[in-house]
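Lab notes, practical 5.
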Amino acid sequence: MTATMRAVVLKEPGPVENLTIEELPVPEPPPGWVRIKVRAFGLNRSELHTRLGLAEGVTFPRVPGIECVGTVDADPSGELVPGQQVAAILGGMGRTFDGGYAEYTVVPRTQIIPFRSDLPWEVLGAVPETLQTAYGSLTVGLDLRAGQSLLIRGGTSALGVVTAVLAKQMGATVLATTRREDRTAALAEIGVDHPIVDTGTVAEQVRRIVPEGVDAALELVGTPTLPDTLAATRVHGTVCFAGMLSNQWIVRDFYPIGYIPTGVRLTGYSGTSGNLPPEVLQDYLDGLADGRIEVPAPTVYALDDIRRAHADMEHDQVIGKIVILPILGQR
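Output from the prediction step:
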């Protein structure tokens, strides 16, 4: 193999121009770590927070990226076979050690999830982190049950889309929001029962559909809309805070009795690789392959277009997931 690789480097927080493509040495995996040949990686709001200087605990310079999919390139333990398909997510990727925005990356073995699939790499690259958060939010954060109603605040985000698809499979009635009227049809196409145009407040619209309020709500926009999401939820219903599309996640001067409506439950979700069981990932990929699961195709960029991809994510130009292929055309 070559001694160097192409990687995206963020030397310090700032605008998209701070993302540069450089030639770096191919990293060597220490004991307990595995080197992955990166075939695709998805973009996440977490990486936008890193670029903007909003994320805590990040050291620079840094190769960003909290997830990737690819093939095992080297495993000192011999446990994983070279060429085996794997996903890697979280656990400090792209924050305390270099992440997935590269042709190769090394990660702790504990963060690797093996899988098998003939799907194109751009489809695979859209899955791991988004699925982990959607699955965990529904099962752990909300404990959603068949027959319940679910409000997704931020429905056209990649996470919102996958959450809606999973919730429908679980037998829920799904309401989901978008700030743009022209995106309501896209929500309906993925099975959302009640697309809602978000003007800043949606509680009144929600209660016209579900008079007592929804059973569960997933807050993906952030603290600016959280009070209204709480107001859309019934007594003994649950709101799970799991996303910050607004880049705001702190509630100032929090007074619980005044902030949380009487009887409404507020939880949060932030998982790790251990919260995405391999069988859940495999079943989801199999569902994509056989048509049981349908989600919008990801928007694909080359590594050289990382700045444009980040700008499109930042300014909400894309429905669903953005995926980068380090080498366009690879399968």
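Observations recorded by the TA: The longest strand covers residues 33-42. The chain has a mean pLDDT of 95.
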